[in-house]
Design goal:
binds zinc ion
């Protein structure tokens, strides 16, 4: 399948998405509990992971996210990260940590890492790709997909190089929050402190 090279928002040809069109999709600010989706602070999960997003997942934004992930959309991911960093408060952390691609996913690039890279350019906070899915976890979650089921505690692993560091998790879309929560568990086992998460869009 050949994805047409045109902006999913305005239809302009020969661009993946126009910077202004991408910006028009953002501007809805959410600060929510990754455990249950309620606005933060959440009474049910006072120590829950707090996630920020600047758009909702649906309509034309879904097309943009799809183009970003599957249609050589590296530049879109970088632009998303830059926009997020320009609109969200700069976190007091040592590293931005993207959620990993699944093992054997066959994908050429990790969109979460590129989003983190875009934010890194603006915030001057380094990206650390320290997370991996544990072997065998492949079929238990589809990253950013609809079937993101509850994950075992050890679904993800982190290298020890972030030991004692403060980090912000980065992903493209938050659906159930289970991927982010698995990432936080892995970081916690590696003795890193996850101060929060940010995603381009949340599913409502
Ligand atoms: Zn456009
Ligand atoms: Zn909650």
């Amino acid at each position: 399948m050949v994805w047409p090279s045109s902006c999913p928002v305005c239809g302009r040809l020969a661009v993946r998405v126009c910077p202004d069109c991408l910006k028009s999709l953002s501007g809805l600010f959410f600060r929510f509990c990754a455990e249950c989706g309620h606005d933060a602070p959440c009474a049910l999960h006072p120590d829950g992971l707090i996630c920020r997003s600047i758009s909702t997942y649906g309509g034309v934004n879904r097309d943009v996210v799809h183009a970003m992930k599957y249609s050589n959309g590296r530049s879109i991911a970088l632009m998303m990260g830059e926009l997020m960093a320009k609109t969200l408060p700069r976190p007091d952390v040592d590293f931005l940590v993207p959620t990993p691609l699944h093992n054997h996913s066959g994908r050429e690039y990790n969109q979460a890492a590129l989003i983190a890279g875009g934010a890194s350019r603006v915030w001057k906070i380094p990206v650390e790709n320290c997370l991996r899915w544990a072997a065998g976890s492949r079929n238990q979650a589809s990253k950013g997909g609809r079937d993101e089921r509850e994950l075992p505690d050890d679904a993800m692993k982190s290298s020890d190089k972030i030991r004692g560091r403060r980090v912000l998790l980065v992903d493209d879309v938050c659906t159930t929050g289970n991927t982010l929560l698995a990432a936080r568990k892995a970081l916690s086992r590696a003795r890193a402190e996850t101060v929060g998460a940010m995603v381009w869009s949340r599913r409502i």
